[in-house]
Amino acid sequence: MENEVTFEELVGKTLTKIENTGTEITFTCDDGTEYKMYHDQDCCESVSVDDIVGDLEDLIGSPIINASEDSNTPAEAKDKEYDESFTWTFYNIATAKGYVTIKWYGTSNGYYSESVSFYRCGGKS
Predict the structure, then answer these.
(1) Strands 45-53 and 66-71: what pairing?
(2) Residues paired with 5 in a beta bridge
(3) Which end of the chain is less packed: N or C, by CB atoms within 10 Å?
(4) How many CB atoms are closer than 10 A to CB 114?
(5) What pLDDT score does 15 carry?
(6) Phi-psi region of 47 (alpha: psi -120 to 50; beta: other; left: phi over 0)
(7) Predicted local distance difference test score (pLDDT) of residue 59
(8) In whole angstroms, what is the distance from residue 43 CA to residue 40 CA?
């Protein structure tokens, strides 16, 4: 069972594993909770991980002390000629071992969502 939750729910959790496919990131916690970050793609849109600043391994084995989400405004499109509508979303995560920013880029014709969803899959809240 998946429940959409805020990204800040990660604060206090200790990650044991992170998997990044480029279109989905899965976070596994030591209490058995799993979180998935992704976008349900539709026609005329594209949302994916654009860049990761920092080392995801710094997030493993140490409690998360900060988890926040930021978005563009104002910002520039990656492809000014073709991206009619776009959204940059930044997910910032910190532990005592390091700080990581996951940067997502979404683009569409303006009629579709460009946002990233964050779901808890089972486990404890």
Answers:
(1) unpaired
(2) none
(3) N
(4) 21
(5) 97
(6) beta
(7) 96
(8) 10
Torsion 41-86-25-37 (CA) sign: negative
| Token code pair at residue 101 | 């920013």
End-to-end CA distance of the chain: 13
**CA–CA separation, 42 and 92 (whole Å):** 26
**E strands, the chain, where?**
2-4, 15-20, 24-29, 34-38, 45-53, 66-71, 85-95, 98-108, 117-121
Q: Are 58 and 95 in contact (CB under 8 A)?
A: yes
Res 76: pLDDT: 61
State how far the Cα of 122 lies from the Cα of 23, in Å rounded to an integer: 21
pLDDT in tens, the chain (125 residues): 568 899 999 999 999 999 999 889 999 999 999 999 988 777 777 778 889 999 999 999 999 999 999 887 555 655 555 556 778 889 999 999 999 999 988 887 666 667 788 999 876 55
Q: Using CA atoms, how far apart are residues 88 and 120, in angstroms rounded to an integer?
A: 23
Output the pLDDT for position 47: 79
